[in-house]
User: Fold this.
Amino acid sequence: MDTRVTIAGVELKNPVMTASGTFGSGAEYGEMVDLNRLGAVVTKGVANVPWPGNPTPRIAEVYGGMLNAIGLQNPGIDVFVERDIPFLKQYDTKIIVNVCGKTTEDYVEVVERLGDTAADLLEINISCPNVKEGGIAFGQDPKAVEAITREVKRHAKQPVIMKLSPNVTDITVMAKAAEAGGADALSLINTLTGMKIDIHRRTFALANKTGGFSGPAVKPVAVRMVYQAANAVRLPIIGMGGISTAEDAIEFLLAGATAVSVGTANFFNPYATTEIVDGIEAYMERYGVEDVKELIGAVK
Assistant:
């Protein structure tokens, strides 16, 4: 039984990885999860300088998931390169570094710093607010998606995965823009924008007012968007959004994803990723699937 998949020339032992921002950079889960069993570990977003993140409260539970407005708090690229990459290098798993920034120059600076590290792939988070465009996320304007993809590709030594925002009218327009800019792969979906109001305090549950909605409730939206993107471009896709079980992950593969990222599930079940690896193997055995690649995009 072959569970290997390839993304932009990088071979993963299986299609299961963590979703950025839900797994730290691996160390937090290292005692509970055997990182050697994962196809890849995707790090929390890293910027060119430390980001303090948003004021608290910045997490709220909602039906079927959660809202977060962490604000991409991170220690910056210097600490990351010194501390987190050496930790991940100890394991037999691929390293995908998630990159965030407020201007194109910010992204380029981080990408250049990562050029001679052990990072295997770069995931570019274009849901960050573009400071120069008055706060609209790079990922909500196809011209901006294409431009930032092209610029990052000019400076990146590793293959580039563009992480797409679902907060758009037509995901295929964004997928095609990233492809036109030279992206090597896509990952989707990022969080949906949501809000929760505390009726007793008559105030917002999050200091930021809005937050990113993730968890099981977003899965049908995510599966639909992955299917649309997979049929619009020729790039490998990493599917994510509400994956809690192997059944969820297989749904994404059948929709056209080459690999999957597990996010919010890590918070309520730290063993979710390895259970999904086992579950995919059990499914393949049950249905006589010799190679996991037979499942990718099998539903048209």
The mean pLDDT is 95.
